[in-house]
Amino acid sequence: MNCKNERYKERLRDAVDFNDVFAIVKDAVEYRFGMRRAGLNLILQDMPSFVGAYHVLGSNSIVVNRYLLNTVKSIARSKEEYNSYVLVVLAHEYLHSLGMVDEYRVRTMTYELCRDLLGDEHTATIMAKSDPTSYFPELKMLMRLTFGREYELVKEFDTSNISYIA
Ligand SMILES: [Zn+2]
């Protein structure tokens, strides 16, 4: 364990919203892989329980399953556990948004990111190593099959770098 790990763990523990967690993701990806981009929207939508989130290639949006988020929020034993889930989901989609299309590669990179920045034992690393549904077996019991019609846009998401957008 080193100082870098402690700083990232502390930031994740103290994160209060999507923007806080996303700022961690962006810093971590830049530190670990030397890549960064701006101008992403975060959209929340109720989706079938087997879909965690998605990014349409070439678009500026990450769409996260609000139904799963709410479920995780209700079963997580701590805010840190919930934040870890959000981190793993956002890191995965952020890597896609950087042009990474290969699913296996994105999963591997997400795991490496969590392991290097937070350490082997961290909840997020454990989630990223297999799958959030292995960490929260309750998620496997969910049976939702439909997409909701409503979208919720998370305001102020990714505005820290808005001036970089041409
Ligand atoms: Zn993916």
Task: Looking at this protein, list some descriptive labels.
166 residues, alpha+beta, four-stranded mixed beta sheet, 4 strands, globular, disordered C terminus, binds zinc ion
Gist of the model:
The chain has 166 residues and is α+β, with helices and mostly antiparallel strands.
Distance between the amino and carboxyl termini: 40 Å
Low-confidence stretches: 162-166
Roughly what is the average pLDDT, rounded to an integer?
A: 92
The amount of helix comes to: 40-55%
Let me know the number of strands: 4
**Silhouette:** globular
Ligand names = zinc ion
* Helix and strand sequence: HHEEEHHHHHE
For the sheet with most strands, the description reads: 4 strands, mixed
| Computed Rg | 15 Å
Quickly count the helices.
Answer: 7
Q: Describe the strand arrangement of the main beta sheet, using strand numbers.
A: 2-3-1-4
Category by helix and strand content? alpha+beta
Beta percentage is 5-15%
How many separate domains? Answer: 1
